[in-house]
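For reproducibility, we list the full input for the zinc ion complex.
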Amino acid sequence: MENKLIAPSVLSADFGHLAQDLEMINRSEADWLHIDVMDGTFVPNISFGFPLMVPFRQYCAKPLDVHLMIVHPEKYVERFCDAGAWSVGFHLEAVEDPLPVLELIRAKGVRTCLTINPDIDVKRLVPYLDKVDMVLLMSVFAGFGGQKFIPETMDKIRFIRQEIDRRGLATLIEIDGGVNTANAAELFAAGADVLVAGSAVFGAKDPEEAIHQMKS
Ligand code: DX5
Ligand code: ZN
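The corresponding predicted structure, in tokenized form, follows.
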């Protein structure tokens, strides 16, 4: 089965008109809302935390896909689950052992995602492919929206796709960073299931049309 899901990243939304931006997401063909949580330690930027989960949940009718770019995710994953996350992901390189953290999320009945930055060997995800609902390959270094897509990501997608298919797994592959209407088709063709797009959606003249184009 082929998935072609689009998850606009709310990091690039207009926070002064958040409800309007979320209503646009509701009207659009977007599948999920991607939520980037940054702590200023794991990444050199701070975004937002729990308080914004309230309006995200209140105004957004689409599943909330939480991407934690934080140290010590084990301390916070349960609170994000309780705050209404549909899936919670954290970075493999942020923990010593991802398994107990994945278990905390799963125990809440929430989908799990394991993420790696571009400088982490993609092979390190292999032992976890049957233990998570999704893997997220960063196609820019986590921390900021609006960066340029790193082309080497393409081979990593193909590698993980092959591994997932060979083992008959249903694990989803999500790609995050520098995704736009020009490279979406190629990313899906390489085996991605979910594309995150921030600036390419919220910076577009017609965001709904941009989402439509990425999906088709
Ligand atoms: C980067 C975040 C991304 C970011 C993507 O650290 O994880 O989700 O919002 O933004 P664009 O699509 O603008 O690269
Ligand atoms: Zn993200």
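Residues 9, 11-12, 34, 36, 67, 140, 142-147, 176-179, 196-200 surround D-xylitol-5-phosphate (ligand 1) (CB under 6 Å). The CA atoms of residues 3 and 193 lie 5 Å apart. Both points were considered when choosing residues for closer inspection.
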